[in-house]
Design brief:
By secondary structure, the protein is of the alpha+beta class. It has helices at about 1-15, 15-20, 65-80, 120-130, 195-200; strands at about 30-35, 40-45, 50-55, 60, 90-95, 100-105, 110-115, 140-145, 145-150, 165-170, 175-180, 185, 210-220, 225-230, 240-245. Helix content is about 20%, strand content about 35%. The protein is rod-shaped.
Length: about 250
């Protein structure tokens, strides 16, 4: 029996390096094994306070530690309490929950998603959440510790660490209305011109005039400013392009 217990203990020590160095956090599940003390074997989930509850010693803080460091801390608790003279404790991470991110906004399946070494890229998490929903922007907001960063999912590799909130906002659009074939909202692209915007709306109808195009844009204080639009004016988000009827 002693040889078997020793073999189990050595096997725990030989766990993959990642499991030994991974920092434990809230929500992670661990298995605590005390050498030659099977009654003290415990499976527990780390609380919001970063602690687990163990027989005899009660709450022990392990959050922010590696598995090896947590084992040493637990062993010290047993020793200080006078329960074991020279305890040998191993801690194994059984379920990783602390490295999670929240995905919100215009996403197919909003929620929390766990990270691992094969799914820590932003694009992978977006894919796992079902992809960006219709009308969502490819440029998302990643929030970590109160700091925001804009990241383009399609063009910028971005590795997540855990604890981030990913917010997919509505893609910026402009509006084209009046005497055009397909009035409506269309996505803004870099350096989009008024003429290109009208083409996106199907072009001017026979009743419309390319010389009577107005551009309505929100100015300071939320005031709507209307100007005569020129074909090569650059369109901005929320602009309204209004093609008027020709004068006969």
């Amino acid at each position: 029996m002693k040889r078997m217990a020793l073999g189990i203990f050595l096997l725990a020590l030989a766990a993959p390096a990642m499991a030994q160095t991974e920092k434990l956090g809230t929500g992670d599940a661990v298995r605590v094994t005390v050498f030659q003390q099977p009654d003290l074997t415990t499976e527990a989930r780390i609380t919001d306070r970063g602690t687990i509850n163990l027989p005899l010693v009660g709450e022990v803080k392990v959050g922010g530690m590696s598995a090896a460091q947590a084992g040493g801390s637990i062993a010290e608790s047993f020793k200080k309490g006078g329960y074991l003279k020279n305890p040998q404790v191993s801690v194994a991470l059984t379920t990783l929950r602390s490295r999670q991110v929240s995905v919100l906004g215009l996403i197919a399946r909003p929620g929390r998603y766990a990270l691992d070494d094969t799914s820590s890229q932003l694009a992978d998490v977006i894919a796992a959440a079902g992809g960006i929903a219709a009308g969502g922007s490819d440029t998302v907001t990643v929030i970590r510790e109160g700091k925001e960063q804009k990241v383009n999912v399609l063009h910028t590799p971005y590795k997540l660490q855990g604890g981030e909130t990913i917010n997919i906002e509505r893609a910026p659009v402009f509006y084209v209305t009046g005497e055009v074939t397909r009035a409506g909202a269309y996505p803004v692209t870099p350096n989009l011109t008024v003429m290109q915007a009208i083409v996106a709306g199907g072009g001017i109808t026979p009743r419309g005039s390319e010389r009577r195009v107005k551009l309505r844009r929100t100015g300071p204080g939320g005031k709507i400013i209307e100007t005569d639009a020129k074909p090569h004016d650059v369109v901005k988000a929320d602009d309204v392009i209004f093609v008027k009827e020709a004068l006969f």
